[in-house]
Amino acid sequence: MDTDKILDFISDKTLEYGPKLIGAIVVWIIGSWIIKIIIKNFAKILDKRNTDASLKPFFRSMLNILLKVMLAISVLGMLGIQMTSFIAILGAAGLAIGMALSGTLQNFAGGVMILIFKPFKVGDLIEAQGHKGIVYEIQIFNTILKTPDNKTIILPNGPLSTSSMVNLSNGVLVMVEWTFGIAYGDSSTKAKEVLAKLVKEDKRLLNDPEPPVIVLSALGDSSVNFTVRGWINVNDYWGSYFEMNEKVYNTFDKEGLSIPFPQMDVHLHKNE
Q1: Which of 3, 139, 173, 217 fits a disulfide with 227 by CB distance 3.0 to 4.6 angstroms?
Q2: What is the C-alpha to C-alpha distance for residues 116 and 126, in angstroms, rounded to an integer?
């Protein structure tokens, strides 16, 4: 008798909730498919309107999250769940999760600030939190940099938006700078001539907006320092930077110019 009651109960509930469950699953599958189409078309609209590349992932992510939440609420409503109670529970859970994920929310707020005020954009060369690299992508919570040796650096947006950051780019151009030292007693004129020749040979250094500059910048403790500055395309930055260091090292040696290292002269006086 108990078995018959159990079977009847299961049969009744299956007939009551089975169609709703099947309908909810169908709606979820179809809704997810429609959301993918909407996101894809939305991305095309952003491309046609020449939206900033740093804003595209943010807008896509926000729209995707909003549509998924709306779809989930609709599916739960089809199953007979009272949405008023569900929303209250969701709000309480959201508060608890927000307190637990305060750092993540800080990164989210930092991402919004970066996308609004645009201290940098995709393709810029920046230096922040002890790292230097080209901005590859600005996400909601993180900013991704690419280094010249193809390493990926992930910086959280919270500290990035509130701490100091150096943007080395000017659109597609960036200022590259070197400092080279020669020993005291070496010819400063010859050093400038050698540096000017090496700079002229590097076709990646541009004469517009202004030609490269070579100046005697400092009289250091152990060396006479020259600073070389020039404009270059951001994608050529690292290649030119590293190659110039190597060329200067090899050429200075051939031209009889010494690259000094820190040293100290000690004089001993003997008292009779």
Answers
A1: 217
A2: 18
Quick one: CA torsion of 163, 119, 111, 237, rounded to 10 degrees?
A: -90
CA distance 90 to 95: 9
Q: Which CATH number is associated with domain 115-170? A: 2.30.30.60
Question: How is domain 2-100 classified at the architecture level of CATH?
Answer: Orthogonal Bundle (1.10)
**Domain boundaries, given as residue ranges, for the chain:** 2-100, 115-170, 173-254
Any idea which of 107-121, 157-171, 257-271 has the lowest mean pLDDT? 257-271
* pTM score over 0.90: no
Residue 96 CA: distances (Å) to CA of 89, 161, 234, 250: 11, 25, 44, 62
Indicate the CATH number for domain 173-254: 3.30.70.100
Distance in Å from the first CA to the final CA of the chain: 122
The model's confidence at residue 12, banded by pLDDT at 50, 70 and 90, is low
Residue 125: is it exposed, middle or buried by C-beta count within 10 angstroms (0-12/13-18/19+)? buried
Q: Rg for the chain (alpha carbons), in Å?
A: 32
